[in-house]
Amino acid sequence: MERSEVLKLLDLPETKISVYRTRPKIELRGRISRSLVEEISRLKGEPEWMLKLRLRSLELFEKLPFSNWLQGIDELDLDELAHYVKPETEIRSSWEEIPEDIRRVYEQLGLPEIEAKILAGLATQYDSENVYLGFKKYLEELGVILMDMSEAVVKYPDLVKRYF
Fold this sequence. Notes:
This protein has 164 residues and is an alpha+beta fold. It folds into 2 domains: 1-23 and 89-164, no CATH class; 26-86, no CATH class. It is 42% helix and 13% strand. The protein has helices at residues 3-10, 34-43, 48-63, 100-109, 111-117, 137-141, 149-155, 157-162, and strands spanning 26-29, 82-86, 121-126, 129-135. The strands form 2 sheets. It has a two-stranded antiparallel sheet. A two-stranded antiparallel sheet has the order 3-4. A hairpin with a 2-residue loop joins strand 3 (121-126) and strand 4. It is globular and about 45 Å long.
């Protein structure tokens, strides 16, 4: 289906998106460090091999020179950067189960309607975590896997490792 056909099918009104800030359950701020990476990995319940991969990536990142190609990047306060923000909810499989404040954001974006009209599956992320996962049953029966990476590294480690 062409992009123009999809947009016509949706026929969504133009909306102005409001910014909603919810109180997170967990928020980790500060400069990226080994202890921060370890804490995020622990909170996500990741296996040891994933933590090692993240720590190796951190080592490589720390060897890179600080970027100067983006104007204003030197004004970025790395001590205040939020690296991991977990909302006050777990992943849900119906829009009605999502907390009202988060659901309003998705409704303004038209996601429930888009999913109903076009998509066979949809995973939405709010801050650092997926909060919604809708998936057509027939795809699951065909062996299609749709889940967030946190769950995939635990349930399908060999499959994930193959692509890392």
